[in-house]
Structures are given as structure tokens and as C-alpha cells.
Amino acid sequence: MKAEVTVQRWEQELEARGETTLERFRRGWARLQEVDGKAGARVVAGLADLAPDLARYLIEFAFGDVYARAGLDLRSREIGTVAMLAALANARPQLEVHLHGALNVGLSQDELVELLIQVGVYAGFPAALNALEAARKVFAERADPGG
Amino acid sequence: MKAEVTVQRWEQELEARGETTLERFRRGWARLQEVDGKAGARVVAGLADLAPDLARYLIEFAFGDVYARAGLDLRSREIGTVAMLAALANARPQLEVHLHGALNVGLSQDELVELLIQVGVYAGFPAALNALEAARKVFAERADPGG
Amino acid sequence: MKAEVTVQRWEQELEARGETTLERFRRGWARLQEVDGKAGARVVAGLADLAPDLARYLIEFAFGDVYARAGLDLRSREIGTVAMLAALANARPQLEVHLHGALNVGLSQDELVELLIQVGVYAGFPAALNALEAARKVFAERADPGG
Amino acid sequence: MKAEVTVQRWEQELEARGETTLERFRRGWARLQEVDGKAGARVVAGLADLAPDLARYLIEFAFGDVYARAGLDLRSREIGTVAMLAALANARPQLEVHLHGALNVGLSQDELVELLIQVGVYAGFPAALNALEAARKVFAERADPGG
Amino acid sequence: MKAEVTVQRWEQELEARGETTLERFRRGWARLQEVDGKAGARVVAGLADLAPDLARYLIEFAFGDVYARAGLDLRSREIGTVAMLAALANARPQLEVHLHGALNVGLSQDELVELLIQVGVYAGFPAALNALEAARKVFAERADPGG
Amino acid sequence: MKAEVTVQRWEQELEARGETTLERFRRGWARLQEVDGKAGARVVAGLADLAPDLARYLIEFAFGDVYARAGLDLRSREIGTVAMLAALANARPQLEVHLHGALNVGLSQDELVELLIQVGVYAGFPAALNALEAARKVFAERADPGG
Known about the structure:
6 copies of one chain form a homohexamer. Chain A is 82% helix and 0% strand.
């Protein structure tokens, strides 16, 4: 059966690769710091007592597996993430983290405003308006990092 | 009051610019064809009997006002739109149109698969899995345009 | 404590009223037929084998309690319901039922198209476009009831 | 091809109409003030520094194009908008603006409570409960406009 | 026709049962207190002035009809409700009430953390992260009930 | 700083554990088969050409990391997943897979109907009605596995 054949091939590849969870973790932690900077570290620290394994999965899976992939540049990844979080509109803290992330990987504030205006077309004006409030807060934090 | 002052200034700017709805429409129609190609034309044709004004707003506002703006390149705009539509997950027909659009403005199929994998992190595995089904259909249409 | 006092008062009112579930059911069934007509009856019939109690709750609660209330006219109720279902965008079958319902209580097809165009502003163009496809189907069913 | 024919006809109509963006803006600003009053003006003022063009689109498109249309009365439009924003449940600031708007165009507080109770049937009790908290705040602001 | 036959049978059953709304109310109030404790009473008290009938429907329908049903144990019901509210991610106050409820009917804090980690797989990491913040608050309230 | 200390401790733990991705994969594949059976294998096979890495992440992360955790029994996990997927309502194929999964780990059809009725209270009647349609299909597949 097709799934079994696929699974056997994957097992052989994974055995050849010999990757450990520690390697994924280290790759993810480096990527998380590169993208989200201090805002990412705060998320990790905040989960350390209550659900440390979810923080580990964020590092290992979201950043060590997905964000560390080679096939799409970081700028494009952050554009996609910011657009998603703005459209979902129930992820305000994460939207702020990734607005920082987008600025960290080279997007300008003007480009982010452009992107959030576009959110209005596909997810409605309220989603765009609320995302712009998150951007206002993040831009102010960048202007006054000690604030 | 602040809003009134802003409004007066905007009126002066708009008067100086003298832009007509016809100009917005023409700019939007050109942009829509550039981005969405035949898939966009089908959306317009499909609305022409039932709600022609919504089709006009799509052309005039979504493409003539927003998508025609200079501050963000088309590639980035399509990344944002595809990510949003995949995350919202209730916009399957529009996701297909913009997967075509993303390919039209230069994204590769591999880059789109990367983007949709990333959807899983922020909107959940089901959103990613269903978006990949849309991509499978769109990629097949590109392989066999007469199909 | 406040909740206990409120609860005691409600118990006295409910005792004085003496309403039975049968009365709510009959009131709800009449209202459901008035609003949704055959489309509502199909929903009830469809649930009768698998989850009959959910069908009863739909009749008793949604229509016998809520839709039968006096404080808002049926036309306004259907406008609200159609707008909600179009915005949620994951309730296509229910949107079709209530587009029929809205026509049944006196809204015109043109008014419904107006309402669905407005959905685009608050829930995004995809929600509006998909709701208009539902309207197209419902309007065709009205034009050809035997179809 | 159908879309091209439609587009040509629209261009002729738009040319004959000769409408400018300034006219749309003035019509929209009048409509926004009529519906949302001070709450709408605050939204515009709040965006003026960060994303003035989104505020303009709100005025020109949402109010100058859509809300100014003749085919549906303002009372019905506000019922639809309040119901949508309550159901989406991620648009609290906008829900407050349009609860004010609904009162401005003639709905009573009791009618709005009726509408929000009905939200519970289609979007779940949490959406209704949270929308009623928004209504509580808005009703208090109306009772004490200087508060 | 099928619906009419079903309706007639239900009317006979309801007549034989003779259940009153007062009975549903009493059953629901007992269930609500058993599950949600003080947090549930606060919801009821909070609605008593603005929309008392919605509070009654919550008691009569949500708890007197649905939560009082015999076919699924309370522990399983609370797992389902917490998972839904976390996934919907726009129901923070209700999520807190039902995190209390889940603890009240016997789930441990560790089990709830497990459940919320799992939310990340299906509704995305942001939904899981935000639900864990709600859990942190609820767990602190349990540790310091007078706080 | 707190995050760095946490990260160092995790690195030490992961080094001591020495877990490889192959181990996670094997654990996940076993769990996926236990829970979702053939429906899960079909998902994996379906992704193998287009996005094999997403299928691997589903096995390694969703099942090898999360579903394989010890702190919550499989029955409870499936209740949570079915409730989430029904509430999100944009995950119909995944809802079907996990309705099979819930039956595989010991829930009865009657218990699932109970759970889906409860969805109506928190996510609205449309979500419950549409989830019950999914259940109808899944129950029929169980009755006629060759169908």
C-alpha cells in the first residue's frame, strides 16, 4: 500500500540523516532569535513554568523544522505570517511578535502598513484596523526600545 | 477637531488630483489582469448579472486602489493574500484564484508549497492540508491549461 | 447573593407562567415554517434519524424561544441572520435556508444583494463573493421551484 | 469574451457618469457622520498619522460606495453590520462603533439586545455574551455622553 | 411528508412528558452550579439587568437541555467545551469559566495543559499560546481564591 | 536572562535523552495508525507527492510529539480534537478523519452525537448541523466499510 511504502522510504532517509531533537532545537532557537529577537525570547520564558513542552515545540517544530527550511526567504515567510495573524484577528500578541519579526528581517514600516491595508480587502476592514493598532504599538516600541 | 482638519486636507488633495472613478477602474482592471489573469476575468464575468457593482468594487477598490499601490511589490502582495486566504480557510475559490495569481507574478510552485506548510504553524494543520489540496488543483490546471 | 436572588425571581415567574416544552415546540414549529418554509422542514427531517434532539432544540429554542420573541420584527431578524451566516462563511447550507427565509418574510432579492455586497466591507470580499454564489442558487430555486 | 464586454460597458457608463474620487469622498464622509457620528470621526482621526489611505478608503469605499447605496435602508444596513461584527467576534472596537451607529439611525436599545440574543443561535453563546458586554458599554456612554 | 410525521410524533412525546420550562430551568441551574460554580453564577448575575432572557436561555437550554443530558459524562463534556473555546479563540471570558468548570468536574491542571498543547496542532500555535494564558490566570485564581 | 537559562537546561535534557527524528517518526506513525487507522494513512499517502514534509511533520510532531504524550488519555484527546474541528467548521475532511479516530479509540456513535449537539451551544447551530452531516457520512462508512 502507498502509505506504507512512503513511510519505509522516509524511515530510511531519517536513519541516514541521523538528526537528533537537540539539533532541531538548536537550529530552531537560532532561527527564533534571528526572526523574533527579544519578543520571541519573552514568549519562551513566559511558557517555561506552565507548558515548557509547548515552548520547546515552538522552537523545535515551528522554527527548527518549518522556519529553518531553505525554500522560501525569511522576508517572504514573515509577510505570510503577519498577513495570516492579521486575518485571523484572534492572535494579537503573536501579531505583535511577528511585526517585530518582519522589521527584524528587513521589511520597512511602510511596507507593513501596505500589507495591513491589503488585509482589509480579504478579511474585512475591522481586521485591518485592529492590525494597524498592533502596528502602531510595535512601531512605538521600536522608536523607544526602553519604553 | 482633528478629524475635520484631516478631512479638509484630504478634500484639497483629492481636488488637486482630480482622479475619476473611470481612471481607478482602468487601473484596477489592468492590475487584476496582470495578477489573476483568466481566473480574475472569470470572477468578474460571474458577478456581472447578479451583483455587477461588487465586481466593479473589486476592480476599482481592491485592484485600482489597493493592489495598484506602489509601496509593496506584487510578489509580496500575493504572498500575503495567499497566506490570508489559506488561514481563513473559508475562501477556497479565492485561494485558487490567488494561487494562480502568485504563480503569475513570479512565485514558484515550490515556494507556494513552503508558504502553505507554514500556514500549519499559525492556523493549524487542517488549514494547511486543505490549502495544499487547492494548490494541487491549481498546479494541475497549469500543467494542462486546456483541461 | 445577586445570582441567587435573580434565580428565585425567575423561578416564581416561570411557575406563574406555567409554560410547557410542548407549547414552546408548537410555537417554534409554527415560526420555523413561517420563516424557513420547506427548507426548514428539510433540515428537521434530515436530522430526525441521527440527532432528533438537536432538531427539537432548533425548533424549541432557536425558533420557539428566540425567533418567536416580540421585540424585533422578522424582517430585521432575517437581515441579521443572513449577514451573520455570510460573515461566518462556514455555514453555506444554513445561509441558503435563511436566504429563502429572508425572501419568505418580505425582503426582495435586490435588498439581499445589497446586504451581501455590504458583507465585503466587514468580512472581506471572499465572504461576500461566496455568499452571492449561495444567493444565485437560491434565486434560481425560487424562479424554478420544481427544479 | 464575456468579461471584456462587461468591462467595456462599465467603462462607457463610468465615462458618462464622470464621478470623481472627491465626490465619493464627500458622499462617504457625510454618510459616515450620519451613521457613526463621533465614534466614526475618532476612527478616521486615529488612522490619520499611520495609515491615512485606509481611512480614506473607509470613507470613499465603505461609506461613499457601499453605505451610500440606495437599495437598502440605513436601519437594515446597521442591523446587518452589528450582527456580522458580533458573529465574527474579533471586531470589538468596530462593534462598539456600529452599536452607536445603529442607535443613531433609529434602532432602540431593546431591539439591539434582541438582535444580540439571536447571535447566540448562529454564532454560539460566547459571541452573544461578549457582544452584550460591548452593548453594555455603549449604552452607558449614551446615558452619560460626558463620561 | 417526513417532517410533519416527525413533528407529530414529537408532539405526542412532549405531551406525554409534560415537562415545563420551570423544570428545565431548575435542572439547568443545578447543572450550571455543579459545573461552573461561582464563575457561572457571575455570568448569570452579570446579564440580569441587560439581557436576563439570554441568561435564562443559558440556564434552560445550554445547561437544562444540553449539559444535563445523560449520554456523555461531564468530564468529556468539559474537555470538548474547553477545546472548542480555545480553538475559536474569541471567547476568552467563556474559556476561563470552563477551565474552572473542567477543574470542578475532576480534570487536573496537568490534563488541561495537555489539552491546550494539542490545540496548537489543529487551531495553530497562537490559539494554544493564548489559551494557556487563560489557564495561567485560572490556575492562579484556584491557588488564591480570595485574590 | 530567563529564556537563555531555560534554553540551556533544555539543551542538557535533550542531549541526555538523545532522541532522534527517526524515533519520533516511528512513535508518531504507530500512534497515527492506532488513532486514525486507514483514514490517517490516506492523508499521508495523499501528501506524499506534493508536500511530503508536511506529512512527515504531521507524523513526527502532531502524533510523535503531541498525540504520543502520556498526560491525557486517547479518548480525551479525540473528544477535544473532534470538538475543535467541529467548532472551527473549516476542517471537514479532518473532522471526518477524527470522527473515525474517536470511534477507533472507543467512543460510541451516541457519545459523538452528544458531543456534536453540544457544539451548537458554543459555536452555533450551523457548526453543529454541519458536523452532524460529517458524522452521518462516517457512520455510514463504518456500517459499510467496503462502500
